[in-house]
TrEMBL record:
Any one GO MF annotation of this record: metal ion binding
Protein family per UniProt: Belongs to the iron/ascorbate-dependent oxidoreductase family.
The name this protein goes by in its record: Cullin-1 isoform 1
Pfam family, one: DIOX_N
Domain Fe2OG dioxygenase stretches: 125-226
Keywords: Iron, Metal-binding, Oxidoreductase
Keyword Repeat: no
InterPro entries: DIOX_N, IPNS-like_FE2OG_OXY, IPNS-like_sf, Oxoglu/Fe-dep_dioxygenase_dom, Plant_2OG-oxidoreductases
Length: 281
């Protein structure tokens, strides 16, 4: 029906503008049962409230972001983030929420591509969930909840805990801007993988989490990415004389290994994929 087509076109254009200008957008009326969100939040909070020795029965394996603990720690001299994590892969694939695929299709359509192009390219896509718990911090001026970084995924879906304080910030024109939590909404952001595939048309955005002196904060994150077995590079349709190729082709598994074995330092991990210019004076 015409009304449905107009509504769909408007939705696609909103996604396009958000991806080009921000790399982040918030989604309401997403269709996910609110009871599911509440149960997920309760289970995550219950886990983090367990005694430490119980949580440590599920330690984060070295060189991965799987299990309980602090990720991206590689040095005794490294300043630690004020965040406890519990991360796991979402397996088997049949139990996954299919809304991630819908959002990827919207993204491809907003680029003028066929709706299924990314899903077909991704193969047996990887989906992982991570729960972040930020306790109150007596000196929030000295400690970050999570250091500045961009995500290595294609798309990231964030659920902020009910009654959460403002914690998420994004970097825009060298200024950190707070993302106000809205009850029952999702925050979607572009990851490094989609920046590469779109040849920089859609950019992953640097973001961080800050702490609060009196309130704790919980967030639940789902990462959606291609199979680790495939090779990635800019889509040929998005490369031309005005937009030369900015990224090399690479194995996604190698990039993921590079990402999880380096400290969070803004968007530096994306240097792995960038084509370095050979300019000389």
């Amino acid at each position: 029906m015409k009304g449905d087509k107009d509504e769909h076109f408007s939705e696609v254009m909103q996604v396009k503008t958000a991806c080009e200008e921000w790399g982040f957008f918030q989604v309401l009326n997403h269709g996910v049962d609110l009871n599911v969100l509440e149960n997920m939040e309760k289970l995550a909070k219950d886990f983090f409230m367990l005694p430490l020795h119980e949580k440590q029965k599920h330690p984060m394996a070295p060189g991965t972001v799987q299990g309980y603990g602090q990720a991206f720690v590689f040095s005794e001299n490294q300043k630690l983030d004020w965040c406890n994590m519990f991360a796991l892969g979402v397996e088997p694939s049949c139990i996954r929420n299919q809304n991630s695929g819908h959002r990827v299709r919207l993204t491809s359509v907003s680029l003028g591509l066929e709706g299924e192009v990314f899903e077909e390219m991704f193969g047996e896509a990887v989906q992982a969930a991570r729960m972040n718990y930020y306790p109150p911090c007596s000196r929030p001026d000295l400690v970050l909840g999570l250091s500045p970084h961009s995500d290595g995924s294609a798309l990231t879906v964030l659920q902020q805990g009910k009654d959460s304080t403002v914690g998420l910030q994004i970097l825009k024109v060298q200024t950190w801007l707070p993302v106000q939590p809205i009850q029952n909404e999702f925050v979607i952001n572009i990851g490094d993988t989609l920046e590469v595939l779109t040849n920089g048309k859609y950019k992953s955005v640097e973001h961080r989490a800050v702490t609060h002196k009196e309130k704790d904060r919980l967030s639940i994150v789902t990462f959606y990415a291609p199979s680790y077995k495939i090779e990635l590079g800019p889509m040929p349709e998005l490369v031309d004389e005005k937009n030369p190729c900015r990224y090399r082709r690479y194995n996604h598994g190698e990039y993921n290994k590079h990402y999880v074995t380096n400290e969070l330092q803004g968007k530096r991990t994306l240097d792995f994929a960038k084509i370095q210019s050979n300019t000389s004076n």
